[in-house]
Design a protein that fits this description.
The complex is a heterotrimer of chains A (235), B (572) and C (164). With 572 residues, chain B is α/β, with parallel strands linked by helices. Chain B is 40% helix and 13% strand. Chain B folds into 4 domains: 114 residues, Glutaredoxin (3-Layer(aba) Sandwich); 213 residues, NADH-ubiquinone oxidoreductase 51kDa subunit (Rossmann fold); 84 residues, Ubiquitin-like (UB roll) (Roll); 87 residues, de novo design (two linked rop proteins) (Up-down Bundle), CATH 1.20.1440.230. Chain B contains 22 helices and 14 strands. In chain B, strands 2-1-3-4-5 form a 5-stranded mixed beta sheet, with helices on one face. By secondary structure, chain C is of the alpha+beta class. Chain C has 2 domains: 58 residues, Arc Repressor Mutant, subunit A (Orthogonal Bundle), CATH 1.10.10; 77 residues, 3-Layer(aba) Sandwich (Glutaredoxin), CATH 3.40.30.10. The chains are: A alpha+beta (235), B alpha/beta (572), C alpha+beta (164). Chains in contact: A-B, A-C, B-C.
């Protein structure tokens, strides 16, 4: 049974249901916490670490997307330290792969890019890693460009949890982790893909995109398939 | 031992070994018994063929009151193959090896001739130890449950199930003050109580033994499983009874084939004798144990990753809460303890929580098993009461460093631990003191380093380890460990400026604070601890382009650091 | 976990080694959580895991191909490439590292032309680096075809390999 909880976020008193996460309560109350791996309607995995927040009386930071509210919590979502860490997270996403926004189909509709803008990330201090990764254009309608992939796993989850096909998974580990379809076979030869396009819909960057879209197409991307946003898990 | 005889390098071949493995048991009471170590270290020095040979020699001598048996680890692996004759209080080291004890000396000792070998009482390596976990290790045959039972094994399980309620068992564990031996030191009794109170899931509750001992330089769990697997199983059965679980798993490393084999044998024998399986000790309590073999992923030592792996998936950790104690395997309450923790249980229940708590310090009770290795004279497995000083461990038990070598540091806690310098050698070894010194107890690896080790290189070594073992799920660990490795590499090769050192420290702080699991959170620890105690070595690499230990290959002039996007080329 | 509807199906070929894999899967009740155990068995039987084996095991256990592939590539013990006739595992745990495991790896690279994870051009020896074999008191340790050798120097290692 869901009960009412009251807590304080950034100095504001807010009320929440006991089964809500800090992220959902904050967003309900217009408090912005950046996220990349979170998507309403999919299981949260707490992987991108952008949504880390401070809890008064605790040294540990908490990922807002997977932290349940508790009575009397006092939460800070945007201290100087948190902003610095978030900038570092975004910087490392950019350095991990070869994200050249100017020639990316997701330019101006990219969640990574907008997070960087919102955090006023102006320069990189660390070394670029940029491994040699491939573009897979074998699918008749879609393209996978590993250079833009941030391994958020949204495509993996939407394909598994909503479409029920589990075409995508992660291969290898650490620096060698890559998004793969089936047995690492080209996407176009996948025996499990239903070509539903949900993975493309949920990709926060330009890693998965529709063929025929020109570079830096100015119009915003289609909204997510409606039933994704439809709180299907609460049913 | 280089250039040594043909016996070295041989290991157990199970099929051949089985035929030769039968002990020599005298008709009447044994006047002397030779305990031949059959753990991996001694086996690789040929202790299995030695066992067979010794049996033949004793038989040929006509002595009828001498026993020859196979036992688990005797501890001083560097002096293997080892044979102990407990009735005579003697240890025979480097048996039949160049510079070691000749086999004739042991045979004479056993058959009424002059006593040979070394007196156990006079050697600090043996006399300073206190054995609880390893008590039966050098006494019972690791592959014979009868031997374990004859030595008092499974009396604790019988006592718990016949005279104590599950709650009373947990009370004893709470009273003992036992803390998890896997690294973090969480109170074991509290964990048991949480699982006991949790409502059973659709498949009841589970007890899981974490035998995924991944810290490089640590082999306590391997030794315990190879030496006395029944003791671990008994601890698990007691735990299952206490928390109300009916199924259990042991998650063991693929790198430990002998431990897995002996464990599997032990489970089969315990089921046959009614200590495991259906209707344990003829009661209505069932406890089925299965072995799951890891496949080479350090991160699976993290409990949520371990559970994911037991369920057949990629071993990636998940955020906690929910903790496994309330939602673990298939969503059921799951008790996870490591090998050494379970190995403490039988003795704790048999004696009492208070008796257990009489050993150790105020907040760290009992003993701790350590794998003492590196630049120290006596390397091997030791068990000491909590609260002994590092100096006593390294210099008394470990026998100090080799002639002419200077002590530099002790590394504890593996890739999440730290390096402790000489001026802290008198600190006591317990959870709190180690953590205050910037290291952790960890699972018990203790690697002694001398002046030939470069501490920046050691930090780089551990970062290399972490970046390769990072599961890749969370960004700070996946990319942060790579970036820290590149920075350390830059420092080691003499191409770094102060700006790189500052970046390394900032990044280390961020990765520690934001990573999802213990692997990422702990990965910066070797950097922090070496910076704290050996900053001068970092400075020598950075400012003078010199590696004081002569380990690092200095490449050349430091690069001017780019601070803007696009000016950081050539770093790879 | 509930048993799945998938179960036994014909093996990819009449190679007898499939029987070991089938037996293991049957013992595990064709449960998807037995995946890692079955991969172990298949690798023991065939020496490595090829696409055919991964597909077959996934089909039998009801695990999607990408998940099987994700698991098989996550764990360093599994190999998707055929291995050499012999294997030489150099332990690179901490104790071995500070006692010269690095020199052993370099020697193998120089003399055999194989880095850790690679097989010599003639297919004779696969060189592997292990995280820690737990044989720290014998550092540096090497395992050649399942036999553990302790306190190995570069010279002795080459001697051992030459005798193969």
């Amino acid at each position: 049974m869901s009960e009412v909880r009251t807590l304080v976020i950034d100095g504001r008193d807010v009320a929440a249901n006991s089964d809500q996460t800090l992220l959902s309560v904050a967003r309900e109350n217009g408090i912005a916490i950046p996220t990349l791996c979170h998507l309403e309607g999919l299981t949260d995995i707490g992987a991108c670490r952008l949504c880390m927040v401070e809890l008064e009386g605790s040294k540990k930071l908490l990922p807002a997307c997977v932290t349940q509210v508790q009575e009397g919590m006092r939460v800070v979502t945007s201290s100087e330290r948190l902003l610095e860490y978030r900038r570092r997270v975004i910087e490392m996403f950019f350095l991990e792969r070869n994200h050249v926004c100017a020639v990316c189909v997701a330019n101006n509709s990219c969640e990574l890019q907008s997070a960087a803008r919102a955090l006023s990330l102006t320069h990189f201090e660390l070394a670029p890693l940029h491994p040699d990764v491939a573009v897979d254009a074998t699918h008749e309608r879609f393209v996978l460009d590993q250079n833009r992939c941030i391994l958020c796993g949204r495509c993996v989850r939407v394909c598994d949890e909503i479409e029920g096909a589990h075409v995508w998974d992660i291969r290898g580990r650490g620096a060698n982790a890559r998004l793969v379809s089936d047995m690492g076979t080209p996407w176009g030869e996948s025996t499990t893909c239903t070509s539903c396009g949900k993975c493309v819909q949920v990709c926060p960057t330009g890693a998965l995109f529709e063929k025929g879209r020109s570079v830096a197409e100015p119009k915003a991307r289609r909204p997510y398939v409606p039933y994704l946003v439809g709180h299907h898990r609460r049913a | 031992m280089t250039g040594a005889s043909g016996t070295e390098g041989a290991v157990a071949r199970p099929t051949r070994a089985r035929r030769q493995a039968e002990p020599l048991v005298p008709q009447g009471p044994a006047r002397a018994s030779a305990h031949v170590c059959q753990a991996a270290g001694c086996l690789s020095m040929g202790s299995d063929t030695l066992f067979a040979e010794l049996k033949e020699r004793v038989l040929a001598s006509g002595a009828r009151d001498v026993a020859v048996k196979r036992v688990g680890c005797l501890g001083l692996c560097s002096a293997g193959p080892l044979v102990e004759v407990p009735e005579q209080g003697r240890m025979f080291e480097r048996l039949d090896q160049p510079g070691g004890v000749p086999l004739d000396e042991l045979v004479a000792s056993l058959t009424g001739g002059a006593l040979g070998g070394r007196e156990l009482g006079e050697e600090p390596f043996y006399s300073r130890q206190v054995k609880v976990v390893l008590e039966r290790s050098g006494r019972v045959d690791p592959e014979k449950i009868e031997d374990y039972v004859a030595d008092g094994g499974y009396e604790a399980l019988t006592k718990a199930m016949t005279t104590m309620s599950p709650d009373e068992v947990i009370d004893e564990v709470v009273k003992s003050g036992l803390r998890g031996r896997g690294g973090a030191g969480y109170p074991t009794g509290l964990k048991w109580r949480t699982v006991a109170k949790a409502a059973a899931g659709p498949e009841g509750k589970y007890v899981v033994c974490n035998a995924d001992e991944g810290d490089p330089g640590a082999f306590m769990d391997r030794s315990v499983l190879e030496s006395c697997p029944q003791q671990v199983l008994e601890g698990m059965a007691i735990a299952a009874y206490a928390v109300g679980a009916s199924r259990g798993y042991v998650y063991a490393r693929a790198e430990y084939p002998l431990a897995v084999k002996r464990l599997t044998t032990a489970i089969r024998q315990a089921e046959r004798e009614g200590y495991l399986g259906r209707e344990v000790l003829g009661t209505r309590f069932d406890f089925q144990v299965e072995v799951r073999i890891g496949a080479g992923a350090f991160v699976c030592g993290e409990e949520t990753a371990l559970l994911a792996s037991i369920q057949g998936g990629r071993g990636t950790p998940r955020p906690r809460p929910p903790y496994p104690a309330t939602s673990g395997l298939w969503g059921c309450p799951t008790l996870i303890n490591n090998v050494e923790t379970f190995a403490n249980i039988a003795s704790l229940v048999e004696r009492s929580g208070e008796a257990f708590a009489s050993i150790g310090t105020e907040r760290s009770k009992g003993t701790k098993v350590f794998a003492l290795t590196g630049a120290v004279t006596n390397t091997g497995l030791i068990e000491v009461p909590m609260g002994l000083s590092l100096r006593e461990i390294v210099f008394d038990i470990g026998g100090g460093l080799a002639e002419g070598r200077k002590f530099k540091a002790v590394q504890t806690g593996g890739p999440s631990g730290g390096c402790i310098p000489e001026h802290l050698l008198d600190m006591t070894v317990d959870y709190e003191t180690l953590s205050q010194a910037g290291s952790i107890m960890g699972s018990g690896g203790m690697i002694v380093m001398d002046d030939t080790s470069c501490m920046v290189d050691v930090a780089r070594y551990f970062m290399d380890f972490c970046r390769e073992e990072s599961c890749g799920k969370c960004l700070p660990c996946r990319v942060g460990t790579q970036e820290m490795y590149l920075l350390l590499n830059r420092i080691c090769s003499g191409r770094a400026g102060m700006v790189h050192l500052a970046r390394l420290e900032e990044l280390a702080t961020m990765v520690r604070a934001t990573s999802l699991c213990g692997l990422g959170q702990g990965a910066p620890n070797p950097v922090f601890s070496t910076l704290r105690y050996f900053r001068d070595e970092y400075m020598a690499h950075i400012q003078d382009q010199v590696c004081p230990a002569g380990v690092c290959q200095i490449e050349g002039v430091p690069a001017v650091a780019g601070t803007h996007a696009g000016s950081h080329g050539g770093e790879r | 976990m509930a048993p799945t509807t998938v179960a036994a199906r014909p093996a990819p070929s009449d190679d007898k080694r499939w029987r070991q894999v089938d037996v293991r899967m049957r013992r595990l009740g064709y449960r998807p959580d037995g995946l890692i155990e079955v991969l172990h068995t298949a690798q023991e039987a065939f020496g490595y895991l090829d696409d055919e084996a991964l597909h077959y095991i996934g089909d039998c256990l009801g695990v999607p191909p990408s998940m099987v592939y994700g698991v098989a590539t996550f764990y360093s013990h599994f190999t998707l490439e055929p291995q050499g006739e012999h294997t030489c595992v150099v332990c690179t745990g901490t104790a071995c590292y500070i006692n010269g495991a690095g020199a052993l790896v370099k020697e193998l690279e120089a003399r055999l032309g194989a880095h850790p994870g690679e097989t010599t051009a003639d297919g004779k020896v696969s060189v592997l680096a292990a995280r820690c074999l737990g044989a720290c008191s014998m550092a540096p340790a090497v395992v050649v075809d399942g036999e553990v050798y302790g306190k190995v120097g570069p010279e002795r290692l080459l001697g051992i390999l030459e005798e193969l």
